[in-house]
Design brief:
This protein is α+β, with helices and mostly antiparallel strands. The protein contains three helices and four strands; from the N terminus they run ααβαβββ. It has helices spanning 5-10, 57-74, 87-94; strands at 75-79, 98-99, 103-104, 110-114.
Length: 116
Amino acid sequence: MNVLLYEINHKQSLYAEYNPRYFDEPEKFKPSRWSGIAPESEAFSAFSIGPRACIGRKFATLESVCFLSALLRDFKVIPVLKDGETKEQWKERVLDARIVLTLGVADVPIKLVKRN
């Protein structure tokens, strides 16, 4: 069987995350789309589902939430804008996610400012 790795990684119809049956405007960055989706749903398959699902799923999720909570507790996240750029233009430039082997994003120019 001959499989083209590029095709697998760039064929958006293979991913439930890009299936319009599950999500409106699947190619846009909309984190709110994950609200209310059960982790066992076929629409969300980051850790797989069923008996062969990742055994580290709960630990990875917990660790991610703890890290982000600590980061946002101690720092403000401020976007670094180009000259004359608005926050909306920054979002359009930066929040253009691409699926390759994993979810990849472009450079995200931000500044972390320590909270008092």
